[in-house]
Design goal:
The chain is of the alpha+beta class and 195 residues long. It is built from 6 helices and 5 strands. The longest helix has 17 residues, at 165-181.
Length: 195
């Protein structure tokens, strides 16, 4: 029997980093496994495989998603961005650059998920979305200050076993400033505010 025509397999077209990929996959295949095992996009890491660590975070239509809990068939028709698609060509995204500049990684295993989450966090914050630690959640209050507490809360779904959290918070703060102003924060400025 042809796998593509079987009752447990379907052809699925995934739009990943601007490229379309058509695969015949088992309906139970997670997006994480499709990315890593079928498409060789191994930047997205498999950590806990239970949605607890955030190592497999990707962006679905610009929003964060843990790909180990997302079925690949449910991602059809959505814009999927993995760590491989965050940079613009050879130019790193401000989050990637800030992670490099401020040592926001140690072993690097959680870094792809941290970076994808941080990209979405910065966009969510700029759009005025509150977090659990936001003091004033009224829509007319505007975006809250992106304090270290706000960053920590918003990034809390991503675990770092090496404990690089201080540098991660600094990197997110610097990247948010770069995105907001179009230029990086002066060296030392955000590091002092976050420490």
């Amino acid at each position: 029997m042809d796998r593509a025509a079987s009752p447990t397999h379907s052809p699925v077209t995934l739009n990943i980093n601007g490229d379309k990929h058509t695969l015949a996959i088992d309906h139970r295949t997670t997006l994480l496994d499709a990315l890593r095992e079928r498409l060789d996009l191994t930047g997205t890491k498999k950590g806990c495989d239970q949605g607890q660590c955030g190592a497999c975070t990707v962006l679905l239509d610009g929003r964060r998603a843990v790909s180990c809990l997302q079925l690949a068939v449910a991602a059809e028709g959505r814009e999927i961005t993995t760590i491989e698609g965050v940079a613009e060509g050879e130019r790193l995204h401000p989050v990637q650059q800030a992670f490099l500049d401020l040592d926001g990684y140690q072993c690097g295993y959680c870094t792809p998920g941290q970076i994808c989450s941080a990209v979405a966090v910065i966009e969510e914050h700029a759009a005025g979305w509150p977090s659990a630690v936001t003091d004033d959640v009224r829509p007319d209050a505007g975006p809250p200050s992106l304090t270290p507490d706000e960053i920590r809360e918003r990034m809390s779904g991503n675990l770092c076993r090496c404990g690089a959290y201080v540098s991660i918070v600094q990197a997110v703060a610097r990247a948010a400033e770069t995105v907001r102003t179009g230029r990086g924060a002066p060296a030392g400025q955000d590091e002092e505010a976050v420490a």
